[in-house]
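# nightly structure sweep
# worker-07 picked up a monomer target from the shared queue
# config: single-sequence mode, recycle default, output format = structure tokens
# input follows
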Amino acid sequence: MKNTIRLLAVLLALCLLLAGCVGSEPAVTTQPQSSAPSSAPSGTTLPEPTQSEPVPETTQPTVTTQPPETTQPVTVAPSRPTEPQNTTIKAPLSQEECMGQAYRTVVRAFLDAGFSGVHAEQRTPDRHDIPGGTVYGITINGMPFAAGDEFQPDAEVVLQYAYYPEPEEQPDDSSFRIDFIDVGQADAALIRCDGESMLIDGGNVGDSNVIYTYLQKQGVTHLDYIVCTHAHEDHVGGLSGALNYATVTTAFSPVTSYSSKAFSNFKNNLGKQNVDITIPKPGTEFDLGSADCQVIGPIYESDDPNNTSIVIRIEYGQTSFLFTGDAETAEENDILDAGYDIGCTVLKVGHHGSDTSTSYRWLRQASPEYAVISVGTGNSYGHPTETVLSRLRDADVKVYRTDLQGDIICTSDGKTVTFTTNRNQNADTLEGAGAGGNHGSSEAHDYVLNTKTMKFHDTTCSYGQKISDQNRKEVTCTRDELIDEGYSPCGVCKP
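# output follows
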């Protein structure tokens, strides 16, 4: 019984030992127990207790706890919301409602409506009655539009608003003058500004002496510009007289050759001065003293010489002048369609007052205060026509005519213009189409004829007295009869 108790005790000790080795507590070294004095009865052999392997002494490892590794938080930007492709915005105003409004108001209205492509362009309009800074043209994507029409936000809105640059102040000693020379049924104008001169046309061949004498009396020995508006004799013919008296720097003409003796003489006389003809392009600009000049026509070539006429607009301070040659409606429309400014204070009426020129459209855009018609007394063409006089009358234009008033002088101080005439300052120039002159066309008078030049003179004319006996003829008849026979009146005595 005692042996059994001893055995159970040993087994319990071993169990406790093993439980200590595998427990959660740190391992410890167990020293072998010494044998206790046997209390068993003699003769009984007890099993030797098992000695376990020594367990090395260990210490609790030091554990350093690092804070958890952190990384900079990454922020992902939300994608910009994209507008649906079919998003549209509406025009806040109609095209008509924009007209006449301050351009800043219109620009702001379209920006506030969401339009991103708004462009404002300052331009000087052809019409002068549009207040500065106001809209006079607008399109969206190049097209007209109405209020409420839908467009993409990037639609192109382009508007034009009126802009009038301040004119340059004229020098104190500046001067500007135009002499519309009476050359009968023809054209001739001498423009002078600040000591520089330009002659536009010179009448017929028979007017060469008139032009020569006129330049001589005016002391004009040099022409900075000489202009043959087109090759017809009643414009180029008398330019040879100018070239025989004055030198010239630049010669303008729409052509360099033309099958007429008058044009050949013009070209030959230029050649004597080593001057070539220049064909100016539309838009050509040049100065005459402090005056600004621009060629605005012809735009296109034409088989009709009239519609090749060089058209020149001149600005002097706040006054302007438009010279049209014999340009007819076709060329007038070409110039207007090309967008040139034709606004003027003084208009030289086209083609001697023929109804093929000075259309209503041209006259509305030019809006002149004054007009000059260079025309021959009792001419066979009926110039100026009642149609053109009626148009000028409707436009409330003050008209001057060489057939009624002779040489016409126009001066400008840069702000206003003043006219003086050789005679009949207060003549009713809007009445009597194709009429005028010193004598009634149905009255018979004494005249001196030059059968070579086909000119007729008053009997007191100094040029008539110089005609050789071979070419001289004295007659008594009416002006109409002489004109019907192909004669033209002398530009000096103006019979």
